[in-house]
């Protein structure tokens, strides 16, 4: 079976967390909005499905239509060995992914603190204030939490010796922060050696390495969640 992934065709965004899981699993998938059927098919699915998703990303698996990044990963993790089999472990990994979801929203709000309907240029001063607070308070809280998990479990991955989709998502967080805030991230990385090591190990996994070198990996850009604005990176 070939999965159908529906997400915006020109940005990594929240869909990238799903792509990384599909790539690591070696799963067959069609990134629909980037194919010939394009955006019209994605719009049709949002209007005609019996269980219409609120917004992309969403995944079609057979007759199932699954929305929300963490929910999609919960489904894929169980099917492709990217999450523990027991309920306790599976829900723990899902809980961690929901925490990453919160972090992703805060990253987005560094450049759009007043809302996504306004351009960044319309909210420069609030964005600067929000970014300063994000790096002084929120980044140490979030990344420090995941760093402690890695240290406490004394393993290569957040939950121990086996990779889960949470590790793939944390790879994307590190890569994205390096793109959006290279100066700030360079100063902060000394405090999270475990997460940096995790990022490097994920990047060297054969399927992920091949994906990163392929045209399936959309480049970071100033339309996605991770955006580089020089005024915010000082």
Question: Which key phrases capture this entry?
Answer:
alpha+beta; 234 residues; single chain
Question: What do these coordinates show?
Answer:
The chain is globular, with a radius of gyration of 18 Å. With 234 residues, the chain is an alpha+beta fold. Helix 6 crosses helix 8. It starts with a strand and ends in a 22-residue tail after the last helix. A 4-stranded mixed sheet has the order 2-1-3-4, with helices on one face. The protein contains 9 helices and 4 strands.
List the helices and strands and how they pair.
Blueprint: E1 3-6, H1 15-25, E2 29-31, H2 38-48, E3 58-61, E4 64-67, H3 69-79, H4 87-111, H5 124-153, H6 165-180, H7 182-188, H8 193-203, H9 206-212
Parallel strand pairs: 1-2
Antiparallel strand pairs: 1-3, 3-4
CATH class category label of the domain at 87-205: Mainly Alpha
By CATH, the architecture of the domain at 87-205 is named Up-down Bundle
Contiguous helical run count: 9
Major sheet details: 4 strands, mixed
Helix fraction by DSSP (H/I, runs of at least 4): 55-70%
Which descriptor suits the 3D outline? globular
- Helix and strand pattern: EHEHEEHHHHHHH
Low-confidence stretches: none
Main β-sheet, spatial strand arrangement: 2-1-3-4
Distance between the termini: 47 Å
Radius of gyration: 18 Å
| Mean pLDDT metric | 95
Number of strands: 4
Decide which structural class fits the backbone.
alpha+beta
Strand percentage lies at: 5-15%
* Named CATH topology of the domain at 87-205: Glutathione S-transferase Yfyf (Class Pi), Chain A, domain 2
